[in-house]
Amino acid sequence: MRARRFASISAGAAAVVCVAALVVTDGAVAAPLPGGLGPCVGPACPGTYPPVNNKDYAGRDNGINVYVGGEFQVREAAAEAEGRVVVLGDFDMAKRAGASAVYNVGIAGVGSRVPPPDGADFLTTGGDVSIAAGQRLLADGGVVRHAGTVTGTVTGKLEKDPDAAKPYSGLREDLRVASKCYARENSTPRPATGTARNEGYRTLFTGDGKSALQVFTVDFDLVGRTGGMQGIEFTGIPAGATILVNMVGAERTINTYTGDLDDRDPLNKLRERLLWNFPDATKVKIAGGAQFQGSVLIGEPGSTATVTASGMNGRFFTTGSLVHTSEATGGGGQEFHAYPFTGDLPDCVTTPTTTPSSSTSSSSPSISPTTATSTTTSSSSSVPTSSTSSSSTSRPTTTTTGSSSTSPTTSSTSSTTPGPGMTTSTTPGQPIATTPGGGPSDSGPLASTGSELRGLLVSGLFLLLLGGVLVVLTIRSRRRES
């Protein structure tokens, strides 16, 4: 009888342990970027993104690749921004004399070769589009949707829309709140799981080898001892882990030679789950002769980001302004390449804004503003260990359009059905697009993975508690019998 009672009590204790584990797991559920930003959007997304190349299209992506809360300036010898570009302010292009006179948006001659669908909004602005005399903005195959005036030469279809940027305005605050929350739980720095050390010739990030979310806090610049380029290496990162690098401080610079075109560099393999977060900086510079790897989030609306890196491979989301340029001396051809971010981040936005999509219709979808709230939840689960190292200028007011393009027009399509939780809608004459991240849709926000798991966990918790009650009743009954 004592043995039976012991077995019953042990079962009850096991149930209590399971309940405790459920509670901990529920608090560690991760979430995507606000508005579903990050992943590829649409039915023609490639299963695997290719290295930077100039071959046929590998797929189509209707997600936003570059988001700018302020103004977007193209200067010196910068070349192109692949993927969809959304700017809440003005888009201003005034490159230096002697540099290439064109700048591509949407389709890039060299990049991931995963452009937006034909007819999508390649560039959306809440202000004016200004192109310097003798220069051209190329958006062939897509739409330039603008709230303000257009000055200069722009190819592609021009769509005047006073509310062009209105559907995306709420993302600015959502991204600001998320950036702060990724770095701090309320006012307390988010616990780091690893260390970062600038050794001069490189900055070495050492993870804990087990956490699914690898968090690093960096309060220094990633530059060489004299301010020049240095390497970036990661070690102790489990396979499939998300890497969150919080670059704290008022001004931050990354100047690196790490990252290549053909994905042989170990850092390239971390690209789609690597986020560089700048929660405080009013000045950010990303430079160097490499293909910079990973997505970037800048949370200060009053900031200015200057990008002179040869290539940016990942999403670029800033709540402030962006200057895409080249150094005063040296080569040009700086490019943004469209690569997704698919990592799992701390749950910092409880009501994400649904990212609207491009559309060639002049009407804008009606979207209710949402308020983002901070939580103090962080991810703490583990995954199997597998380390890897690694000015204003006067311009003519004549606007012209054309159909020339420097990129091939071969497109690939797919009948792949969107994944669970994604909805599609079709406008006559327009490509199918999906929510979240950028497609035209009247559906509400995508339910987060965290919310779905919490529902299952609550049900499991109830069943375990019920089982515990039954165990107690059984023990009492057997005591009376004895």
From TrEMBL:
This protein is called what?
Answer: Choice-of-anchor A domain-containing protein
Instruction: Please report the stretch or stretches of sequence annotated as the Choice-of-anchor A domain.
Output: 62-308
Disordered: annotated span? 347-447
Q: Sorted alphabetically, which Pfam families does this protein's record hold?
A: pAdhesive_15
Task: Please list the residue ranges that the record marks as compositionally biased, kind Low complexity.
Answer: 350-429
Work out whether the entry's keyword set contains Transmembrane helix: yes
* Sorted UniProt keywords: Membrane, Signal, Transmembrane, Transmembrane helix
Q: Where is the signal peptide?
A: 1-30
Its transmembrane ranges are 455-475
* Species, as recorded: Amycolatopsis regifaucium
Q: Does the keyword Signal apply?
A: yes
